[in-house]
Amino acid sequence: MAKRHGRFSIFAVLLAGLLLSSGTGVGLSLYFGLQTAIQNTRDLWITMTSADIADAERVVADRFARTADRNNWIAAKVAEGAIDPLAPAFWTEQAPVLIASETAIGAIGLTTADGSFIGYDQQTQKVTESKADLYDMMISKQLLQMGPGQSQTLFPYWQSMLKQAVLGEAIPLFHNGQYLGVLIQYLTLPGLSRDLQMRNQEDGRTAFITVGDHIIAHPRLSNWQKVNMRSENSDFIPKSIEEATSVLPRIDEIGDPVLSQRARWQPFALGDSLTYALDQRIEASQIVINGQHQFIVTRAEQGETSSPITFGMHFEPSVFAAQGQRINRLFLIGAAVLLGALIIAAIIAHFFSRPLKRFSVATRQFEDGNLAEVPQLAPSSIKEFNDAASSFNHMVHTLHDRARIERLFGKFVPPAIAQSLLQSQSDAGTVPSRKCIATTLFVDLQGFTSMSEKADPQDVVDILNAYFADATEIIESRNGIITQFQGDAILAVYNAVGEDPDHADAALDTAIALQKLVHSKQFKGTTLRCRCGINTGELVAGSVGAPDRLSFTVNGDSVNSAARLEVMNKELGTKILMGETTRNQLSDPSRAIMAKEVLLRGRSETSAVYTIQIDGLE
Q1: pLDDT, tens digit, for every residue of 39-53?
Q2: In angstroms, how far is the first alpha carbon of the chain from the final one?
Q3: Residue 78 region, left (φ>0) first, then alpha (ψ -120 to 50), else beta?
Q4: Domains within the chain, CATH numbers bracketed
Q5: pLDDT digit string (tens) for 277-302?
Q6: What are all long-range contacts of 399-403, with beta carbons under 8 Å and residues at least 24 apart?
Q7: For residues 601, 602, 606 and 611, what is the CA-based torsion angle, rounded to 10 degrees?
Q8: Quick one: average pLDDT of 91-112?
Q9: Confidence band (pLDDT; 50, 70, 90) for 379?
Q10: Burial (0-12, 13-18, 19+ Cβ within 10 Å), 481
Q11: How distant is the alpha carbon of residue 112 from its chain centre?
């Protein structure tokens, strides 16, 4: 083997790159300096964040308390008879006033035990009467069994009237011992988020509220609902309680990388002085995402709800803008060194990526099967890349030759047989004989012999080639194998190579398609007609001939019978005739129509032959 010069091993190139990029050590120094600055101010930010979380908790607690007080007041007035929730005047006059100042309440309504609903929609400022929501109906039945009681907060669910997720505040209404229904005030989650100012803070912090594993307030909640067809224009109606209560995103579905990796949060201990100053329920955690530390501060609160609510905020060190001046000088020094390292890394990356990109383009073309489009890979100065390019080019060239052989070979033998021979490990070139039950289709052109006597021989060949091209496509699309072109006739067989349990249907469908073809198209300006004979039975398929001159063919009485049935079309005035064995093999034998009891040539007993009616032709 000739010695190759001017090429380098991947190991040598990588080693040189690592040595040249050692300046990244400055970047690490910068990183640790930044971490020191973060640690110096982290406690201050946690204190500020905990205060904001406490404020959010108070807002939610106040919201629930006011809503519950309103429910309890209405229930008391209903019990006294001072308010009649079944009267239209309550919903047109009193209900709007009761919730007018509550922007987070989307609606208030009454669901009765019989499944009807009446309520006031604050968004449209209209009274609505309809069939009760599925989840509201379940709550109505549950509270009926529990009897009079205090207002309860419901887990977030989808409310069909408001067409969005809501938090419900529910209370049963009774008057003189009679159950009137359940009164529910609907707190919309977007409204709650507005009250809590749940948006990305200008200082880089992101606030969130969860119930269990679900998000009820987050800057991305509104967009998530729109993307997932939970918007005001949605026609979504829950068909089950599970659907109604599964409309909120889980913490790993909102698209927040910090929340989605909650399992990786690592708690860290607060300083003694900070622990003493803060509420004991405050928990601090951190996580590294894309090389950046993210800090999370949470506070769990059971409150008045049946499911635990967690309030939280997360932020990254970039929020410590005040500390930026402290590290500016260090950053400028390190940036110069890092810039040099990046330039060197870019040069090395370009040097490596150029041959890899060429190789990637070539392999994609190869995967798509476009061998003609696969580019020739150029030599490379890197030893391993050059060897890979050379091997790839040789492989593509070999496959080009194989594909060309397959194309040429497939023009003279059925494609399935050609593929079988090319995949065979033997050079004998034979297809082993196979005895099987198969369906034979014999197709012959009507009156073509007399027409050929009057036409130019070249015109005859052109007409036949045009007809055979379309007929071959129809036959092979239905898994048929053409074993012979006999003048103007075609002999095709189904199930002789491979397994096709519907071979009788495939042959009949082919015959119908051929009839429709010749009745709908001219070939080189000539109108043709054909007759088809179909028969199913035992035959032998395999290679026949001398050792150096072979052909694939089928033999058997069922093959001869197909040819005789084709000829009998002339006598019976039909286009398609099939034997009784074929008719019995059809998935729907009723398609076949009995034509006649006939005595086929070479037979001692008569047998029924069948035809088929083709829509639009007969």
Answers
A1: 656 666 677 777 777
A2: 75
A3: alpha
A4: 40-319 (3.30.450.20), 426-611 (3.30.70.1230)
A5: 455 677 888 888 887 878 888 887 75
A6: 399/371, 400/371, 403/371
A7: -50
A8: 88
A9: confident
A10: buried
A11: 42
Amino acid of residue 347: I
- Spell out the alpha helix ranges (H) of 437-590: 448-454, 457-477, 503-520, 557-572, 580-585
Residue of 488, 486, 495, 477 lying closest to 534 (CA atoms): 495
Q: Tell the burial category of 426 from Cβ atoms under 10 Å away from its Cβ (0-12, 13-18, 19+).
A: exposed
Using 50, 70 and 90 to split pLDDT, how confident is the model at 586?
Answer: very high
Alpha helices in 90-150 (DSSP H): 95-99, 134-146
Residue 376 reports pLDDT greater than 90: no
By the 8 A CB rule, do 426 and 434 touch?
no
Other beta carbons within 10 Å of 120: 22
Two tokens, residue 431: 């297809």
Kindly give the residue spans of alpha helices, DSSP state H, lying in 305-375: 324-367
Largest CA distance in the chain: 113
- Amino acid of residue 204: G
Among 186-195, 235-244, 374-383, 578-587, the range with the most confident prediction by mean pLDDT is 578-587
pTM: 0.43
* Sign of the CA dihedral running 382, 384, 390, 396: negative
Report whether pLDDT(3) > 50: no
